[in-house]
Design brief:
This protein is an all-alpha fold and 111 residues long. It has one domain. Helices cover 58% and strands 0% of the residues. Helix 1 packs antiparallel against helix 2 and helix 2 packs across helix 4. It is elongated. The protein starts with 13 loop residues before the first helix and ends in a 6-residue tail after the last helix.
Length: 111
């Protein structure tokens, strides 16, 4: 396999790439949580996402039995960041997409 399998790969799901970025303790974890939540349509099952992630992790010899739990955790954190950005946008009368940098600028927290 060419290159680092943990890097973005053509044809691979964006959910897999975001999941791997979070797992690698990327400095933009909050933004990854936010993106994960924005990309996942509320009310739809996470089964396809979990399967894609497990498929990739299995090929990397790092299967995880708690992928589903982590996906739900990422979505929970991401939805909190979506709420924060949307609330801030309503205060400053801006568009949430223009304010996502706020996620990176806020002071240190648990996520």
């Amino acid at each position: 396999m060419k290159g680092d399998p943990l890097e973005v790969q053509p044809g691979r799901s964006i959910f897999v790439d975001i999941y791997l970025a979070i797992e690698r303790c990327d400095q933009f974890q909050r933004l990854c949580y936010y993106a994960f939540a924005k990309l996942h349509k509320k009310g739809t099952p996470v089964d396809p996402i979990v399967k894609e992630i497990d498929d990739v992790l299995g090929r990397l010899c790092r299967p995880s039995s708690d992928t589903r739990k982590k996906v739900y955790h990422f979505l929970h954190l991401g939805n909190k960041w979506v709420e924060i950005v949307e609330q801030y946008a309503s205060i400053v009368q801006g568009v949430p997409q223009q304010l996502t940098g706020l996620v990176c600028l806020l002071g240190s927290a648990s996520t």
